[in-house]
Design goal:
Layout (H helix, E strand, L loop, with lengths): L11 H21 L4 H4 L6 H16 L7 H14 L4 H8 L6 H10 L1
Helix pairs in contact: 1-3, 3-4, 4-5
Length: about 110
């Protein structure tokens, strides 16, 4: 097994269901705190983006948990796209040069 691959833990459908549940919890918590959904919904990742971030986190944890270099982060995300073609758009959005959501900048900073 190469450095970028980790054992698959579940199908993409199951991961999407988990991600959707997690996002719904986040939305409910923020609504209960009195936040305006028009203000915070753009800050949240899409379901597929959250799945990609979960898979990336599993890979990082499986290989020591250290902060990956930019090159390794790129390889890991590319491997996710190759292993799960249905997540390719989300991977490429996360690899894009310009953040398309407010949380992207923090995610990229953590990866570098």
């Amino acid at each position: 097994m190469s450095e970028e691959q980790t054992p698959r833990r579940a199908s993409v459908e199951l991961l999407r269901a988990e991600a959707a549940d997690e996002l719904s919890v986040l939305v409910e918590e923020r609504l209960r705190a009195g936040e305006d959904p028009w203000e915070f919904m753009e800050e949240l990742p899409s379901v597929d983006e959250l799945v990609v971030l979960m898979l990336r986190a599993e890979n990082i944890a499986a290989y020591g948990g250290g902060r990956p270099s930019n090159a390794r982060n790129y390889r890991v995300l590319r491997q996710i796209a190759m292993d799960h073609p249905e997540l390719t758009r989300a991977v490429w959005r996360l690899l894009g040069s310009e953040p398309h959501r407010r949380w992207d900048a923090a995610t990229r900073a953590d990866a570098s």
